[in-house]
């Protein structure tokens, strides 16, 4: 398996060879027409990008040659130098040297000595004549047999990968059906072929998914400027630290959470971190600490936004939620801090005291919630007054194929994404109590409300659920505990079937308007299976509880 360094080196080589080919083409055009503005601008851009990439990879000499040529092209563009005479010879030699250095990087060999070339480029920048030595500076085709090379990497549009992944998804569905059929027929030859198809399609599926992965740093590396601008607007001192930029995730997921992460970072600087005066008064360092990090947890990717600011004022949020009519004072008094913090993600909810360009406009953290819901992701919030807050986005590595637990209600299967499942329980009636008309059990020292999944799926209208009783409970109750926004809910089902990967397809109209279902999948038996939307089930229960 390739290391991260090998992958980065290959990416650098692919771009560098492409830059080199473009440089040679534009340089020939500039020689034919010294006033060719577009060619000159493109040469300046290519040198600038190559310089930045080379320095980032630690190829100092390569970066220095590109930097000197970039400066020289800038002077030519500003008409302080003319592309003529000895300048042409040195520039062509410089571009040839870049090609040799790029090939040396690809072959993992030492880079050639370019001290004389850099001296001549310096002379040209200063307006002096270079010291030309044909033996040292001019390399002909006959003189290390220079090769014309093509990159090992190709660029491909994301929509092409999307289409390929959809086709693989269809293949996975049919594969499971063939495997089920082969097991039912019990034909050894057919079963062996089905098992081979299973392995091949599995490899194909993960190969396509792997091709869509990008480093989280593609997004995280854009935030230093964001933090600087917000901190300046808020007149705060903020130090940003980042880690885990090389953690891999599906490119589409990264695209979907971009706005969500932007809001979290802006919120951390605007609401989370105190002013310099407030920090000093509370005995903290003047500079606030903001950390953006990515890490993996089982099959998930976690992106965390952590600040060492004032923390969430739970009681202030509780009062605001009551004022906004999101809950009653009586109900709010019974909610724990995690349930209170969930109000921060309601549409239009804001704790800002005044409207600024950064905050207080009623648009913000609900964007985070919507983005995570669309991905089947989760949000974790941890906070301590005076110490800071951590928001954790729990994201699937890929959105094409998801792990799911299949459950059965009234002899029909339903799929629940594993991302929202916490545990399965077999509860005896004695482990269940009735509190305020709601079934309740205790799990990890926390009261978890229970509701028959049948009621949530089939009770019509906006009427509250009927008060729960234990009179119909005979024997163990099969309970699937799901978790959304730090709110646990136990779904009582008829039985657990199995855990498997599923390919989720969107529901067609008009079924796509039913919030309780996040899509549909096809089981190996050919049976259609609805995929439950856990956030929607959670919201429905909160709205309909007695």
Account of the 3D structure:
This protein has 546 residues and is an alpha+beta fold. It folds into four domains: 4-137, Four Helix Bundle (Hemerythrin (Met), subunit A); 159-211, Helix Hairpins, CATH 1.10.287; 215-396, Histidine kinase-like ATPase, C-terminal domain (Heat Shock Protein 90, 2-Layer Sandwich), CATH 3.30.565.10; 401-544, CheA-289, Domain 4 (OB fold (Dihydrolipoamide Acetyltransferase, E2P), Beta Barrel). The protein is built from 18 helices and 18 strands. The protein has helices spanning 4-32, 37-57, 60-77, 86-106, 115-126, 134-137, 158-185, 188-211, 217-220, 223-234, 251-272, 276-281, 314-323, 329-334, 337-341, 365-375, 453-458, 534-544; strands at 213-215, 238-243, 248-250, 288-297, 300-307, 378-384, 388-396, 401-409, 412-417, 421-427, 433-435, 438-443, 446-452, 477-484, 487-493, 495-503, 517-522, 528-532. The strands form four sheets. A six-stranded mixed β-sheet has the order 10-14-15-13-12-11. The chain has a five-stranded mixed β-sheet with strand order 2-4-5-7-6, covered by helices on one side. Strands 16-8-9-18-17 form a five-stranded mixed β-sheet. Helix 1 packs antiparallel against helix 4, helix 2 packs antiparallel against helix 3 (60-77) and helix 7 packs antiparallel against helix 8. The radius of gyration is 31 Å and the shape is flat. Mean pLDDT is 83; it is low at 135-143 and 354-363.
């Amino acid at each position: 398996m390739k290391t991260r360094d090998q992958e980065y080196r290959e990416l650098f080589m692919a771009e560098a060879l492409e830059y080199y080919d473009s440089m040679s083409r534009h340089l020939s055009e500039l020689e034919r027409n010294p006033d060719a503005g577009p060619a000159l601008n493109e040469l300046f851009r290519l040198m600038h990008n190559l310089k930045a990439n080379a320095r980032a990879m630690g190829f100092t000499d390569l970066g220095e040659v590109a930097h000197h040529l970039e400066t020289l092209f800038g002077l030519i563009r500003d008409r302080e130098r003319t592309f003529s005479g000895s300048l042409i010879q040195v520039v062509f030699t410089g571009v040839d040297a870049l090609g040799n250095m790029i090939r040396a990087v690809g072959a993992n060999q030492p880079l050639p000595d370019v001290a004389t070339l850099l001296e001549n480029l310096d002379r040209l920048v200063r307006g002096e004549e270079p010291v030309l030595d044909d033996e040292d500076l001019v390399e002909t085709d006959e003189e290390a047999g220079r090769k014309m090379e093509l990159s090992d990497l190709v660029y491909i549009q994301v929509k092409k990968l999307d289409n390929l992944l959809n086709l693989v998804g269809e293949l996975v569905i049919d594969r499971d059906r063939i495997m089920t059929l082969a097991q039912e027929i019990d034909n050894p030859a057919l079963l062996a072929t089905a098992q081979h198809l299973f392995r091949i399609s599995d490899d194909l599926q993960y190969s396509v998914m792997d091709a869509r992965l990008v480093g989280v740093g593609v997004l995280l590396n854009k935030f230093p400027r964001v933090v600087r601008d917000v901190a300046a607007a808020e007149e705060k001192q903020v130090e940003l630290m980042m880690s885990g930029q090389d953690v891999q995730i599906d490119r589409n997921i990264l695209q979907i959470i971009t706005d969500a992460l932007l809001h979290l970072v802006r919120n951390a600087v605007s609401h989370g971190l105190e002013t310099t005066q407030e920090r000093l008064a509370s005995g903290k360092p003047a500079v606030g600490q903001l950390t953006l990090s990515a890490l993996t947890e089982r099959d998930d990717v976690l992106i965390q936004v952590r600040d060492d600011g004032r923390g969430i004022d739970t009681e202030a949020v509780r009062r605001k939620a009551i004022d906004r009519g999101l809950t009653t004072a009586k109900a709010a008094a019974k909610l724990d801090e995690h349930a209170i913090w969930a109000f921060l993600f309601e549409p239009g909810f804001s704790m800002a005291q005044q409207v600024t360009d950064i905050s207080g406009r009623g648009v913000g953290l609900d964007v985070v919630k919507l983005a995570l819901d669309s991905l089947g992701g989760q949000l974790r919030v941890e906070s301590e007054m005076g110490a800071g807050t951590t928001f954790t986005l729990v994201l699937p590595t890929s959105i094409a194929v998801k792990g799911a637990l299949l459950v059965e209600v009234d002899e029909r299967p339903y799929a629940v994404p594993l991302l929202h499942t916490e545990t399965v329980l077999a509860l005896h009636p004695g482990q269940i109590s009735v509190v305020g008309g709601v079934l309740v059990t205790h799990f990890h020292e926390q009261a978890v409300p229970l509701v028959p999944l049948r009621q949530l799926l089939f009770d019509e209208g906006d009427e509250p659920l009927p008060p729960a009783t234990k009179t119909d409970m005979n024997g163990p109750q099969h309970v699937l505990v799901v978790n959304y926004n730090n709110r646990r809910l136990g779904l009582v089902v008829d039985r657990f079937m199995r855990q498997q990967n599923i390919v989720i397809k969107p529901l067609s109209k008009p079924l796509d308007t039913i919030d309780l279902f996040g899509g549909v999948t096809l089981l190996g038996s050919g049976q259609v299976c609805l995929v439950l939307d856990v956030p929607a089930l959670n919201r429905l229960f909160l709205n309909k509880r007695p």
